[in-house]
Amino acid sequence: MQPVVDRRKLLASAAAAALLAAPRGWASLGPGGALRVGLTGVVVREYMRSFNRLADYLALRLGRPVEFVLRRSYRDIMDLLERGELDAAWICGYPFVKPRNPEYLSLLVAPVYRGSPFYRSLLIVPSASSAASIIDLRGSVFAFSDPDSNSGYLVPRTTLADAGFNPDQFFRMSFFTYSHAETVLAVARSVADGGSVDSYVYNTLQKFEPETVSGTRVIAQSRQFGFPPIVVRNDLAPQIRDRFRDALIGMASDAQAVPVLALLDLDGFTEVSPALYDPIREMAKRFAKAATAEVPLQ
Question: N or C: which terminus of the chain has fewer CB atoms within 10 Å of its end residue's CB?
Fold first, then answer.
């Protein structure tokens, strides 16, 4: 009789052996050699089952456990990355372009959404609202997603600054939802008079939960920006980094990955240049300059 093999123990043992053989200076992975990947409200929280499926798929391809770690904000995720408590993360382009000294992150891949690695920021209002632009929302209540979100914070505030308004004084009140899905709900329920959200999340909600977005409408959209990237720590072992990258890129041509990608509403993943995020970097610099201008904005 053939001995029964516990596959999970086998994977854990192989991962532990790889860690023992790793040169000094490489990051320590999680318990059992697990690759720890951070997530925030950039994903629809209700679809965490999609990421559980993705974790199972990647574990098979990497030969080690993969653990998705959900935190409330981008700041929380960036802190964990800086401390080495995460090995990788799906973050936003805004925190990616912020300067770090020393730099501890590298760009791995970007998701491919509707044929390209781009998305937009959408300005939404309740369906019954008469607002036609962000200027019409002056003195209203506005919902931002996260202070480190490009689509949910930097874009609307830079739009106001570019128009000569002081973003800190423009709205009667504003608040953070820390989730694009929650921003949609806040606007749909008229808790907020407007909000700015990620087009990927909005469209995914529209596809899988049309009732959630039915009380909203889009009144403006930004230019295209590089899709929120997946990054890794620079001290992640090269062979793990490469297998992680190859596994993600290979999903588009793997029949086993098709159902997982369908749940994520993505076409796949692709390598991109850091220059893809230059427009966000330039916008962040422009907004920072406006915020420190000596002449008060409107």
Answer: N
**Mean pLDDT of the region 43-56:** 78
Q: How far apart are CA 151 and CA 145, in angstroms?
A: 8
The mean pLDDT value of the chain amounts to 89
pLDDT band at 9 (very low <50, low <70, confident <90, very high): very low
Q: In this predicted structure, what is the pLDDT of residue 50?
A: 87
Q: C-alpha dihedral over 109, 110, 112, 113, to 10 degrees?
A: 160
* Residue 70, strand partner residues: 39
Q: 224, 227, 277, 229: which is closest to 107 by C-alpha?
A: 229
Among candidate residues 114, 184, 192, the one with its CA nearest the CA of residue 151: 184
4-116+227-278 and 119-225 share one fold? yes
Give the C-alpha distances (Å, rounded to integers) separating 218 from 19, 82, 121, 123: 49, 36, 10, 6
The residues with which 116 forms a beta bridge, in sequence order, are 113
Quick check: 15 and 33 in contact, CB under 8 A? Answer: yes
Percent of the chain at pLDDT exceeding 70: 86
Record the pTM.
0.87
Q: What is the pLDDT of residue 169?
A: 94
Determine the Cα–Cα distance for residues 90 and 40; give it in Å rounded to an integer: 8
Average pLDDT over residues 83-111: 96
Tokens of 135: 């200027």
Fold of 119-225: D-Maltodextrin-Binding Protein; domain 2 (3.40.190)
Give all strands (DSSP E) within 46-120, no chain letters: 66-70, 88-90, 105-112, 118-119
Superfamily of domain 4-116+227-278: Periplasmic binding protein-like II (3.40.190.10)
Residue-range domain boundaries for the chain = 4-116+227-278, 119-225
Decide if 64 contacts 33 (C-beta within 8 A): yes
